[in-house]
């Protein structure tokens, strides 16, 4: 007997089928099929042929490939009985629960007492498919690996793109050609990590940012993931995502993967990006005040580091407010005897040497300036040199002789007493002070990956969020070490990188936009001379790069010249005037003809207005700027296009392109097919172009 199911939205169809009670397989995923498609015929037509050197029937590439069915690739499940014996499950169909946008399929293996369930949900508005697998066992079992429902990868694709990175260098794209065998990425650091962002793009041949078919995946989990992108000997391709292997220490009776977010796009990689951006912003993040504008941040880290001095901080706050900041975030250094990064993590009590009257005088001052107040914590961490460690050395995760990271250990978040302790300390600070924001840091990798650790962190966050629902949280881990949809279910902003170098940020922001909308992506104007790269960048470039996302400042405002302060105030005012629509805009990566130009177009909901940020990351090879093609405009509509910062045209630009002197009315067709001819510019500068449909 053949069973089939389909999930549709306006742009895609996902078809699953199963025969002989076997586990289901995805037999079609792509552009929407006609309503009348005969799914049984499709299922049967999908079967691949058999020739010499093959099994007599091809084992299905199911949503959880089973080793017992001579599957020639990586299985979707690996587990052992409590006595250590390997289990080789073989599942049979139990039930299908079909809703209009969701499907839950249950299969069981009676011999081994196992039940496997896969759930799919399609979001008709964002076009994201969420897929999650769970496993129940009659007796406790040891789990080695459980994949989220396995998806096929397209055949007409020559390469896959995934993301690596490092401290101050997040979201670097890797392109790997498809070939027989697998690309295996496993993050065993116990946090999402700079090194292995859990995402994958599979563009079909010829796809660009703006056109063509592309598939993309994101695994929404903060404890480290495993990805397998495998081409089987017969040519079929599978994508598996799940928690890193062997992260469940104990034998248990229930397991669940995190959601795998999967997207098909028929309009380029931007189609995937827009789906993820909207889904994250409108479905995943829980906003305390959904309609409130994102406030301009000031963060004092790179201004004072651990050297907290009340009059200095007040002065900095006053200057930041004058520049346009609306939220002051007090970073590391306010608690215990935290004079440097060797001590006091977990001693979450205000340092009376630095704040003899508590935080109130600073908070009152900040509020008096019309700003709200945020504060830094690194809850999951402990320094051996801390009062809490001296009293509770057994709270630390991992062995005594483990290698420290930034002189610190992780707390064992699986212990309820650790979570209670953290909850009480954080809740006390939040209750005794008017604080509406936490920057939540996580500055070391774990001694070993453990899913219970991540669950413990989630539980603490959830508890705090329930009791303090108005407090927003920013996820930071030495910059972008914990960015994923799992943490963003509990937080509202990410610190993309510890690099405030606008040149590096320009590129990182460009790539991160495939997953992250502007509203959650923190971006700060750093010091003139960047603390992490040594690069000296003009304030205009620094300010505009920060204005591409959720804007903030992080330099010591006392270093600003009058001219710099004026530029910064102006750009900040521009950002404030535009943020309402920009925080709901789609970020579209432009296909730049000049590799030196990293450009994006933020298109408002409804398409009536846009802004283009064209960053010059290097000196171009050719002498004159190549036209920059825009995207997703209406071909026969007219747009008024204006170079916002045309006053910044350098003297070496001697020609007369119209944009240099006045707004220009051009059709969407021209802008998309020929593109905008921008004035010549120096490297490390940004052109900002506003457009409005007439
Ligand atoms: C690492 C973060 O990424 C920085 O922004 C800052 O908060 C420091 N930790 C504080 O120790």
What would a concise description of this structure say?
The protein has 694 residues and is an alpha+beta fold. Strand 25, helix 8 and strand 26 form a beta-alpha-beta unit.
Produce the secondary structure layout.
Layout: E1 2-8, E2 12-19, E3 25-31, H1 39-46, E4 77-81, E5 86-87, E6 92-98, E7 102-109, E8 114-122, E9 128-146, E10 151-152, E11 159-166, E12 169-177, E13 181-186, E14 197-203, E15 214-219, E16 225-231, E17 237-243, E18 252-256, E19 260-265, H2 268-284, E20 297-299, H3 301-304, H4 310-323, E21 327-330, H5 360-368, E22 372-377, E23 381-382, H6 387-391, E24 409-410, H7 416-432, E25 437-440, H8 451-467, E26 472-475, E27 493-495, H9 502-512, E28 521-525, H10 539-547, E29 550-553, H11 562-582, E30 586-589, E31 597-603, E32 609-616, E33 638-643, E34 664-667, H12 668-673, E35 685-693
Parallel strand pairs: 20-21, 20-29, 21-22, 22-25, 25-26, 26-27, 27-28, 28-29
Antiparallel strand pairs: 1-2, 2-3, 4-5, 4-9, 6-7, 7-8, 8-9, 9-18, 9-19, 10-17, 11-12, 11-14, 13-16, 14-15, 15-19, 16-17, 23-24, 30-31, 31-32, 32-35, 33-34, 33-35
Helix pairs in contact: 4-5, 7-8, 9-10, 10-11
The structure holds (2R,3S,4R,5S)-2-(hydroxymethyl)piperidine-3,4,5-triol.
């Amino acid at each position: 007997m053949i069973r089939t199911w389909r999930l549709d939205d306006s742009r895609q169809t996902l078809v699953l089928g199963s025969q002989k009670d076997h586990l289901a397989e995805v037999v079609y995923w792509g552009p929407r099929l006609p309503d009348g498609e005969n799914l049984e015929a499709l299922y049967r037509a999908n079967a691949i042929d058999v020739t010499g050197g093959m099994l007599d029937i091809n084992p299905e590439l199911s949503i959880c490939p089973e080793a017992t069915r001579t599957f020639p690739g990586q299985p979707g499940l690996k587990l052992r009985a409590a006595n250590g014996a390997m289990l080789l499950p073989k599942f049979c169909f139990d039930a299908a629960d079909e809703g209009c946008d969701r499907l839950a399929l249950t299969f069981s293996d009676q011999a081994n007492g196992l039940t496997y369930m896969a759930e799919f949900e399609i979001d008709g508005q964002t076009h994201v498919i969420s897929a999650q697998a769970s496993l129940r066992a009659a007796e406790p079992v040891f789990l080695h690996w459980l994949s989220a429902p396995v998806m096929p990868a397209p055949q007409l694709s020559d390469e896959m793109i995934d993301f690596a990175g490092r401290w101050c260098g997040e979201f670097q794209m890797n392109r790997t050609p498809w070939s027989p065998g697998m690309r295996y990425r496993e993050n065993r650091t116990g946090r999402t990590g700079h090194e292995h962002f859990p995402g994958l793009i599979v563009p079909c041949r010829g796809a660009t940012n703006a056109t063509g078919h592309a598939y993309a995946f994101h695994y929404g989990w903060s404890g480290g993931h495993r990805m397998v992108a495998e081409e089987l000997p017969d040519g079929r391709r599978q994508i598996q995502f799940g928690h890193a292997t062997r992260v469940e220490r104990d034998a248990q009776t229930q397991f669940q993967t995190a959601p795998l977010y999967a997207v098909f796009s028929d309009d380029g990689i931007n189609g995937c990006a827009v789906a993820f951006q909207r889904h994250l912003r409108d479905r995943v993040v829980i906003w305390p005040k959904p309609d409130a504008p994102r406030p301009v941040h000031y963060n004092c880290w790179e201004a004072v580091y651990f050297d907290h001095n009340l009059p200095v901080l007040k002065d900095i706050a006053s200057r930041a407010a004058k520049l346009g900041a609306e939220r002051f975030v007090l970073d590391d250094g306010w608690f215990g005897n935290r004079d440097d990064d060797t001590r006091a993590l977990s001693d979450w009590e205000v340092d009376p040497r630095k704040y003899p009257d508590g935080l109130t005088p600073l908070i009152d001052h900040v509020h008096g300036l019309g700003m709200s107040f945020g504060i830094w914590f690194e809850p999951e961490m402990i320094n051996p040199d801390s009062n809490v460690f001296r009293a509770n050395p057994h709270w630390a995760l991992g062995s005594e002789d483990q290698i420290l990271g930034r002189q610190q250990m992780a707390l064992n978040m699986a212990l309820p007493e650790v979570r209670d302790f953290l909850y009480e300390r954080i809740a006390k600070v939040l209750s005794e002070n008017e604080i509406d924001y936490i920057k939540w840091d996580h500055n070391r990798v774990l001694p070993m990956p453990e899913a219970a650790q991540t669950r413990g962190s989630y539980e603490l966050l959830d508890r705090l969020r329930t009791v303090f629902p108005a407090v927003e949280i920013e996820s930071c881990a030495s910059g972008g070490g914990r960015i994923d949809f799992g943490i963003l279910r509990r937080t509202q902003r990410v610190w993309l990188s510890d690099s405030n170098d606008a040149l590096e940020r320009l590129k990182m922001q460009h790539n991160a936009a495939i997953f992250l909308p502007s509203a959650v992506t923190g971006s700060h104007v750093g010091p003139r001379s960047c603390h992490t790269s040594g690069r000296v960048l003009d304030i205009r470039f620094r300010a505009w790069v920060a204005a591409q996302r959720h804007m903030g400042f992080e330099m010591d405002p006392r270093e600003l010249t009058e001219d710099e302060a004026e530029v910064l105030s102006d750009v900040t005012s521009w950002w404030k005037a535009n943020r309402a629509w920009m925080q709901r805009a789609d970020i579209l990566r432009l296909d730049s003809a000049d590799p030196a130009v990293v450009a994006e177009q933020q298109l408002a909901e409804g398409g009536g207005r846009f802004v283009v940020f064209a960053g010059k990351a290097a000196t171009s090879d050719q002498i004159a700027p190549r036209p920059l093609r825009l995207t997703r405009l209406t071909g026969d509509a007219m747009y008024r296009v204006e170079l916002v910062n045309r006053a910044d045209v350098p003297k070496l630009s001697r020609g007369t392109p119209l944009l240099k002197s006045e707004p220009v009315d051009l059709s969407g067709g021209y802008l998309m097919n020929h593109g905008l001819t921008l004035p010549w510019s120096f490297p490390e500068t940004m052109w900002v172009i506003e457009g409005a449909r007439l």
